[in-house]
Amino acid sequence: MKAAVFHGADKGLRIEDVSKPSPGAHEVLVKVAACGVCHTDLHYLEHGVPTFKKPPIILGHEASGTVAELGAEVTHLKLDQRVLIPAVLTCGKCMFCRTGRENICTDMKMLGNHFNGAYAEYVVVPAKDVLNLPQSIPLEEASIIADAISTPYHAVKNRARVRAGDTVVIFGCGGVGMNAVQLATACGGYVIAVDISDRKLAWAKEFGAAAVINASKVDRVSKEVKKLTGGGADIAMEVIGNPKTIEEAFECVRTGGRLVVVGYTHESISIVAGKIMFREIEVVGSLGCRPCDYVPLIRMVEQGRIDLKKQVTHRFPLTEINRAFEVMKEGASLRSIVVP
Questions:
Q1: Number of C-alpha atoms within 13 angstroms, CB side, residue 124?
Q2: Of the residues 52, 55, 79, 140, which has the maximum number of CB atoms within 10 A of its CB?
Q3: Distance (Å, rounded) from C-alpha 191 to C-alpha 235?
């Protein structure tokens, strides 16, 4: 089969012929319909972030497809069944899994990081983790549910705890950030979207943002947010992973409000601890999505409350996957998918 194999940050991705994998007793072989192109993979390719499995490894963690082969012990799935593969797989045994916080499982495994991923024609995954996709959801576009939609769903629902009437400022209008805009709006929030791209801010309005701020055209975003909200947002969400924007997002939060850090950075940030204490501001992180949240999330997509097709602005054959990353870096895409 064809696959995009990562050989290290200095060598990038190569399209290669590799052996089609075979499922173990409790696994399934999935024929990949599409795999979303995520900024996380760019961290591996260009920013020196290592994969847990040393290269060579097939990347890609945002996939949908159909069941092509069943492991000997798999009885709850059938051939040709349409499935979504969660980006992160959990053990189901550790303390966090047992207490409903599977997304911070102590033994989590990530597709295209701990083991071979879905920038390929086929991928093998544990049968217990795949989720059924209704016929009404387009199979290729459904791939982005696995991360670009599930990650902000957990962030908005479980960590930000957005309620009707909340003012929510969201920093970053990429694939994950745009879905944070869409989901926070669906929860009844008054959403202010922040980015430096007028194109992405225009998209944010289409996805429900009540107001937008181009950070490159104002002195301080926090000043503008305080004007719009009468003193500060109830909730600020940083979906970029930049120390400066995390710090600025903190400054947007009103007394008694909440900062939710969704974007990843390995760098330190500088926040005045006295403000956290004296103003009772919550600072929380958000990672991935719990397995139990995929069912209501898929139902929201099925009901049309989340728009999939509008989010997929580009699609590429597997042989042109490197072009997908170029489009991402140019800021021209909202979400690209690779179709093997």
A1: 15
A2: 140
A3: 10
Length of the chain: 340
Does residue 232 contact residue 226 with C-beta atoms inside 8 Å?
Answer: yes
Q: How far apart are CA 27 and CA 47, in angstroms?
A: 32
Cα–Cα distance between 224 and 243 in angstroms, integer? 20
Alpha helices in the chain (DSSP H): 39-46, 95-98, 150-154, 175-186, 198-206, 221-229, 243-251, 273-278, 294-302, 321-330
In this structure, what token pair is assigned to residue 90?
């959990």
Q: C-alpha angle 12/14/19, rounded to 5°?
A: 130
DSSP-derived 3-state class of residue 21:
coil
Report all structural domains of the chain as residue ranges with CATH numbers, in order of start. 2-147+289-339 (3.90.180.10), 150-285 (3.40.50.720)
Backbone angles phi, psi at 145, to 5 degrees: -60, -30
Q: What is the pLDDT of residue 249?
A: 98
Q: At what angle do helices 321-330 and 39-46 cross, to 10 degrees?
A: 100
pLDDT, one tens digit per residue, over 242-269 is: 999 999 999 999 999 999 999 999 899 9
Burial class of residue 306 in the structure, from the number of CB atoms within 10 Å of its CB (0-12 exposed, 13-18 middle, 19+ buried): buried
Q: At what angle do helices 198-206 and 175-186 cross, to 10 degrees?
A: 30
For residue 47, pLDDT beyond 90: no
* Residue 167: per-residue pLDDT: 98
Q: What is the dihedral of CA 238, 244, 250, 252, to 10 degrees?
A: -90
Angstrom distance (rounded) from CA 316 to CA 244: 33
What rounded mean pLDDT belongs to the chain? 96
Rounded Cα distance, 104 and 85, in Å:
18
| CA distances (Å), origin 223, targets 170, 183, 226, 246, 262 | 15, 25, 5, 15, 22
